[in-house]
Amino acid sequence: MSSRLIKKIIIAEPSEIIREGLSNILTNREYEIMFVNSLDEISNYKNYYPIDVILVNPV
């Protein structure tokens, strides 16, 4: 099992608090965070970019 750092995180339908909080916490260069407004937008990204984590409607 190889270990690697998470590179891309997509968060769908985040609340404003989650959006602000995660933007402030995960400012490390190892992470790329993308916020999308709907699950449909995720399918556009996953066809072109490797995605490591998808969070949907986190509260």
TrEMBL record:
PROSITE patterns in the cross-refs: RESPONSE_REGULATORY
List this protein's GO terms for biological process: phosphorelay signal transduction system
Q: What range(s) does the Response regulatory domain occupy?
A: 8-59
Q: What name does the UniProt record give this protein?
A: Response regulatory domain-containing protein
